[in-house]
Amino acid sequence: MAEAAACGGRMLEVRIWRGRDDGAFVSYEVPARANQTVLDVVTWVQRHLEPTLAYRFACRVGVCGSCAMTVNGRPRWTCRTHVGRLAGDGPLAIEPLRNLPRIRDLVCDLEPFFTRWQRAGGRFVATSTRRDPLPRIAPDSEARRAVDAGIECINCAVCHAACDVVAWRPEYLGPAPLNRAWTLVNDIRHGAREETLDRVRGDAGCHACHSQMSCSEFCPVGIAPTAAIAGLKRASLRHLLGRRDE
Amino acid sequence: MKEGVLFLLQRATALLLAPLVLAHLALVLYATQGGLSAAEILARTRGSLLWGGFYGLFVLAVAIHGAIGLRAILAEWTGLRGRTLEGITLAVALLLLVLGLRAVRAVVGAP
Fold first, then answer.
1. How far apart are CA B96 and CA B66, in angstroms?
2. What CATH code would you report for A111-245?
3. Domain assignment of residue B79, given as a range
């Protein structure tokens, strides 16, 4: 095949998880190219070798957040992970994300992840309409900068899969929902800041985080949910001490 | 809410314990390196409000800090939740408190 010839006909050994929880890795040989992503590899297997292989993707360019998988034991966006840049020359191992129920092959059920966003009070509550003047928020204010630091999350669930506390304590809200809550707590336009803070201060909320920072390490956008969670812990403490003073 | 209170207690006792542990270690080194006998040590600690207060506070902080830490480990490693978890946490806190206070009484109290 002409494509394979691009890399001298070299083949890549790939192990892909097939089935559900009781599934297994299946090995495939994929033509190596000079420039290919893990998503390219999975797509090649699905188009040429295994038409029943289930996996998710949409944009292929790191915008949609739907192609996250576990690649060689680490959660990643497969569309932004170049095979050539992965350490080691061993076989590529591709599995579904950790900490989520598996549906089939590389596809997880993300419902538990999105349910947490709701539980963490992640829904914006408007306080004005389009007919009201826009609120003025100083770009360099502390609150605005806190929002800026976390606002680019695209809900890919890489942090959720990376977090050990999520694995150990299944009811823990997790990094992304807490990061979202922190952006809302700092958003003066949000009409339920108190409620959002109340929701993340409860059992298995922000205080369950051990600051292991896997979320910050693996976030493909470079967000540091650990910092957001630390902010929530501080806000929670202030709230607690404030109430005691009254 | 409760988690917030436990978090606060955990952090506050950690703040207390850091200097207390250092002072305790320094004291142990001083007392043993200096060749003080048990009787000489007891002669200094008995009836001492300072040492009674120091180790009483130490024991209280340890009981709170240790129990809360163990609670988190139990919740994550054994999956314990609810009353069982709270019961064990409280039992550990009380055990540490009673054992610790007995030791303090032995060192500070009258013979």
1. 8
2. 1.10.1060.10
3. 2-108
| Partner residues linked to A104 by β-bridges | A107
Q: Which residues in chain A come in under a pLDDT of 70? A: 1-7, 87-89, 243-246
Averaged pLDDT for residues B35-55 = 91
Fold of the A2-108 domain: Ubiquitin-like (UB roll) (3.10.20)
Q: In which region does residue A8 sit, left (phi positive, over 0), alpha (psi from -120 to 50) or beta (all else)?
A: left
- In the numeric block, the tokens 């939740």 are attached to B81
> What CATH number is given to the structural domain containing B77?
1.20.1300
Structurally, chain B folds into a number of domains equal to: 1
What integer pLDDT is reported at residue A142 of this predicted model?
95
Closest by CA position to A157, among listed A171, A179, A170, A176 = A176
| Helix or strand (DSSP H, E) at A217 | helix A214-218
Distance of alpha carbon B55 from alpha carbon B92, whole angstroms: 19
Rg (CA), chain A: 21
Residues of chain A positioned with their CB less than 8 A from the CB of B3: 201-205, 207-208
CA distance between the termini of chain A: 76
| Closest CB to B4 among A168, A169, A201 | A201
Q: Evaluate whether A2-108 and A111-245 have a shared fold.
A: no
| Interchain CB distance below 8 Å, A236 and B4 | yes
Q: Distances in Å between the alpha carbon of A242 and those of A22, A142, A143, A169, A234? A: 51, 20, 19, 29, 12
Hey, of A207, A211, A237, A240, which one would you mutate to test binding to chain B, going by the most B CBs within 10 A of its CB? A207
Closest CA of chain B from A65, distance in Å = 29
Which residue intervals of A13-157 are DSSP H helices? Answer: 38-48, 111-119, 142-150
In 3-state terms, what secondary structure has residue B56? helix
Kindly give the residue spans of alpha helices, DSSP state H, lying in A29-85.
38-48
| Domain limits, chain A | 2-108, 111-245
pTM of the model: 0.89
Task: Answer yes or no: are the C-beta atoms of A71 and A83 closer than 8 Å.
Answer: no
Which tokens hold the place of A69?
A: 């998988």
